[in-house]
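Team,

Forwarding the record for the chain on the shared tracking sheet. I've put the sequence and predicted structure together so nobody has to dig through attachments.
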Amino acid sequence: MQKFHFPIIVEMDEDGYYIVSCPIFKECHTYGETIEEALENI
């Protein structure tokens, strides 16, 4: 399996969830209760 590396942005919202997005891909974002969960989801 080939792996790729893309830049991501990690932010925390007002409810304490971590929002992760990849600016290269429009509308590519997800969230998680922990950073690890958010990164796994992206």
